[in-house]
């Protein structure tokens, strides 16, 4: 089994758990904190919580640097843009300095976007070729993908780069994603997984008979200790107690 599993009653509970994790980290760390968020629908509730009166005033936004695990190669105003969705739900509502927002420029050609993102990240982690983000939030698809690392893209697992462009056959579209090397160097890696549609893949990765290595998400093996899996009850329903 991979990592620590925390089960909450629902998506709202999961999102509060994730927000508390972030607040705890901000309290533990002196200076700037680097946090990677993922796209898709799961983080939306977390974003709205962080922008809410309950949390907004408790976060030192000047110290929080936000990065993305991946991005679709679309303009930021596209409804498919992970940055665009985070901007609408969170970034436009909190006093985070522009310089703390490290988006992937999805409007650029994929290789250029990946290279510029890599340069931006490395400039934030001076003196190291392997950035170690303080906290990385990941999602998981029903096919076991995470970030934009889909089944069949194993060759990117060996990449020593920080970020790479990937053509995703399944969606016939380009994406830019952090590489497993960088994901696994994160100080804390946390999967946020909600909903009955994820129960099967969660059990295939975390279950007693799970075959974690069969899926990209299962190959996330952070060097600083196992990932944490924040699941709501529906996503965890096929796991033994
Ligand atoms: C993306 C994400 C992706 C996401 C999973 C889960 O760009 O789509 O980074 O890896 O985390 O597909 O998506 P949901 O939260 O929508 O289920």
Supply the key terms:
241 residues, Rossmann fold, 3-stranded antiparallel β-sheet, 10 strands, 19% strand, globular, binds 6-phosphogluconic acid
What does this protein structure show overall?
The protein is α/β, with parallel strands linked by helices and 241 residues long. The chain is 25% helix and 19% strand. It contains six helices and ten strands. The chain has helices spanning 11-28, 43-50, 82-89, 110-124, 180-183, 199-206, and strands at 4-8, 33-37, 64-68, 70-72, 101-102, 135-138, 163-168, 173-178, 189-193, 228-232. The strands form two sheets. Strands 1-10-9-6-2-3-5 form a seven-stranded parallel β-sheet. A three-stranded antiparallel β-sheet has the order 4-8-7. It is globular. The model has no long low-confidence stretch (mean pLDDT 94). The chain binds 6-phosphogluconic acid. Residues 38-42, 69-70, 82, 139-141, 145-148 line the site of 6-phosphogluconic acid (6PG).
- Strand tally is 10
Count up the domains. 1
Helix fraction, binned, reads 25-40%
Under CATH at level 1, the class stands as Alpha Beta
Note the run of SSEs as H and E: EHEHEEHEHEEEHEHE
């Amino acid at each position: 089994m991979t990592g620590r599993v925390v089960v909450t009653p629902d998506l709202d509970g999961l999102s509060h758990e994730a927000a508390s994790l972030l607040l705890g980290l901000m309290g533990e760390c002196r200076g700037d904190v680097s946090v990677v968020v993922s796209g898709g629908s799961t983080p939306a509730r977390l974003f709205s919580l962080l922008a809410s009166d309950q949390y907004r005033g408790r976060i030192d936004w000047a110290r929080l640097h936000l990065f993305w695990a991946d991005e679709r190669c679309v303009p930021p105003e596209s409804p498919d843009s992970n940055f665009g969705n985070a901007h609408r739900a969170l970034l436009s509502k909190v006093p985070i300095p522009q310089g703390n927002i490290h988006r992937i420029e999805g409007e650029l050609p994929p290789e250029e976007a990946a290279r510029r993102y890599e340069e931006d990240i490395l400039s934030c982690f001076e003196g190291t070729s392997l950035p170690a983000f303080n906290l990385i939030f990941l999602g998981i698809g029903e096919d076991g993908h995470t970030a934009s690392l889909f089944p069949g893209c194993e060759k990117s697992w060996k990449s020593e780069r920080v970020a790479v462009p990937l053509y995703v056959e399944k969606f016939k579209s380009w994406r830019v994603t952090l590489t497993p090397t960088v994901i696994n160097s994160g100080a804390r890696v946390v999967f946020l997984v909600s909903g009955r549609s994820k129960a099967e893949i969660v059990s295939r990765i975390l279950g007693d008979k799970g075959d974690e290595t069969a899926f990209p998400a299962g190959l996330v093996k952070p060097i600083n200790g196992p990932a944490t899996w924040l699941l709501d009850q529906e996503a965890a329903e096929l796991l033994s107690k």
